[in-house]
Design goal:
Order of helices and strands: HEEHHEHH
Strand content: 5-15%
Structural class: mainly alpha
Number of strands: 3
Number of helices: 5
Helix content: 40-55%
Oligomer: single chain
Shape: globular
Distance between the termini: 15 Å
Amino acid sequence: MTTEQLPPRRIGIVTAVTVLVFALDVLTKVLVVATLEGREPVRVLGGAVYLQLIRNPGAAFSLASGLTWLLALIAIGVVVAIIWIARKLRSKAWAVGLGLVLAGALGNLVDRIFREPAVLRGHVVDFVSVFAPDGRIWPVFNVADSAIVVGAVLIVILTLLGRDYDSAGPPADRLPDDATREGRE
């Protein structure tokens, strides 16, 4: 496929998804801190979901609780890598997946930078617990965590289907420029 035949770059999709999901993450965290601080868990959907403010110094399942600074540095690396890849994106689905992961990484990174106890050691605001309060059945999470998981699952599915981030279809559907030119001659 020649350059003229490639689909347009998809940086706008990455940007739109990132801005929308990041804004939703920040808004929900502000609301949760303002309304759930010091309160008992709020039971929703007959106990299928509980809303409860938890300040998490670690990652999922409270892993790496003493390494918050390392989690912040990893998030910075993820953000930089996605921004670098986004310039080459031509797949809409990859753009959505990477936008979700970028928004989630930024959402939790902002907490780690600006929340107590200190810069690069801030605790992430989590507030959704499923099937029981306090994360007894599943770790308490937030919008950013959900975005990371959904984006990562989408990217894995695209990879398994052979969809490249820089093309419209599977690699087998594309030919190198030389082979394409030879086929037309």
